[in-house]
Specification:
Radius of gyration: 20 Å
Shape: globular
Number of strands: 4
CATH class of the largest domain: Mainly Alpha
CATH superfamily of the largest domain: Intergrase catalytic core
Number of helices: 12
Oligomer: single chain
Helix content: 40-55%
Number of domains: 2
Order of helices and strands: HHHHHEEHEEHHHHHH
Largest sheet: 4 strands, antiparallel
CATH architecture of the largest domain: Orthogonal Bundle
Strand content: 5-15%
Structural class: alpha+beta
Amino acid sequence: MGKDPGLRWKTISVYFTALKRYEIDHATPGRPLQQHRFAALLEGIHREKGDSAQEEEKDARRPFSAELLRNIEQKCLGDKASRSYEEKLFMAAAAVGVGGLLRANEFVSVGPTQREEAVLRISQLTFFRALDSAQNVTLVQAVSKPGEVDHCVLHLKCSKTDQRKKGQNKYLAGNTVRSLLNYLACHPTVQDGNSVLFVHHDGTSLTRKELVDMMREHLRKMGVPEDQVTRYSGHSFRKGGAESLESQGANDSVIMSMGGWTSDAHKRYHSGKKEKHEAAKLLGRDRHAK
């Protein structure tokens, strides 16, 4: 496979990922993906990648960090009270993507083929006044008094890293929650918990392409060169969230826990609520606040 110039390693990777997902979804008898021969094949592919993987890395997607989002907010958008609906929508969606280390297809629409359980809805948000509080704040209370909200738990019903389909909780805090509540205050059907979370004012879902186009347009306004602008994509939010945590001093275990990553470099997987909450605080923190 590696000798075929028309077959990229990314294509091979996607193909085998699809096979793995099929087995998980359909409980394929015999579990062929767990057989020794298949494991050896995958190991061979990783070894064969060599310089090809390094070349692809040179063209890797750019990270859309929390710092970059703050700069856009300060330089491209007006005062919060005077922002248009679309500006509030972009800020909320981008903040949730970065703050939750999410892939774009985990929080916005990717088209008619998207699975129903992958559509993010308002009811999947829960707001709290304090970290250890067992009593959540209603959406109405959170929107009317955002200053009293400490953090938000976003429940994903499905995710690429949630192989057992048990669902995952993402912890959002600080300015991420402020942007989210500022947007929800003008959401057209906010009272209906079954409503799609990120929608345009006419009720149509915000798509991955639209979100990426919005992000790139703001980057152009910031003076980012076009050859760099085109390297920002839907995956940039997840990558930027991880980079933001690293730049603010979060240790590897916290980053892995927030993003759901596994690696040989990390032998222990931490998923403690407090660690995730502290990471969310870092991502949502306003570094200019006193």
